[in-house]
Amino acid sequence: MKNINLQVEDREYLCIIGPSGCGKTTLIKCIAGIIEPDEGEIYIGDKLVNNLPIEDREIGYVFQEIALFPHMNVYNNICYGPFVKGWSISKAENLIKEILNMMRLYDRVRDKPDALSGGARQKTAVARALISGSKLLLLDEPLGSLDAKVRRVLRYELKRLVKDLGLTAIHVTHDQEEAMSIADRIVVMRAGEIVEVGTPIELYMCPKSLFTANFVGEANFFIGDFVGEEDDYVKIDVGGKALYSKCKVNPEDGKVVAVIRPEFVVMKRTGPPREVWRGVIEGRVFLGGSVRFEVRTENDIMIAVKKPLLSEALRFEVGDHVALILPREFLLVYPYPKEGLEKAISIE
Amino acid sequence: MPLIELVNVTKRYGNVTAIKNLSLKMNDGEYICVLGPTGSGKTTLLKLIAGIVKPDSGEIYIDGRLVNDVPPQERNVAYVPQYYALFPHMSVIDNVAFGPLSRGFSREEAYKVSMQMLEMTKLAWRANSFPHELSGGMQQRLALARGLASGAKILLLDEPLGALDARLRVELRYKLRGIAKKNKLTTIHVTHDQEEAMVVADRIVVLRNGEIQQEGPPSQVYNEPKSIFVAHFVGGANFLEGFVAEVDQYGSWIQLRNGFLLRVNDVNRVVGERIVVMVREEKVEVIKGARRREEINLFPGAVSEVSFLGDFVSYSITLDNGDKVSSRMPSVFGLKRFGIGERVYVRLKPENLRVYPYPPQGLYKELEVI
Amino acid sequence: MIKYICDVIIRETRMKSVFPSRNNGSMRKLIRKLDELSSRDSIKYLVYASSILFFFAFILLPPIIGILENISQVETILHEPNLLARANAAIIQSFFMAFIIATLDLVAALPLAWFIVRSRIELAHIIDTMVDIPFLIPTAALGYSTLLFWGRPDGISRIFGVESLVPEGFLLVFLLHFSFSYPVIVRVMVGELLNYKEVYEIAARTLGAQPLTAVRTITLPLLKPGIIASFLLAFARSLSETGATVMVAGQWENGPVFLFRVIDMVGLPEHLKSSVLVYVSSILIFTSTILFFLISLLAPKFRFPIRRVFPSIERRLSSSKIIRFRNGLTLLVFLLVVLSPSLFIALPMIGALIDGTLGEALVGSGPWGEFWRSMTISYAIGSLSTIVNIIFGLPAAIVIARRKLGGATPIFKALISIPIIVPSIALGVSLRLFWGRYYFLHEFWILLFSHTTITYTYFVESMAAAMESIPLEIEEVASTLGAKPLTIFREITLPLTKYSMFSGAVLVFTRALGETGAAKAVARTKEFWTTPILLVNWIKDGKITGSQKALSVGLYIILSFIILLALRLLTRRRK
Question: Which domain holds residue B246?
Answer without folding.
Answer: 236-367
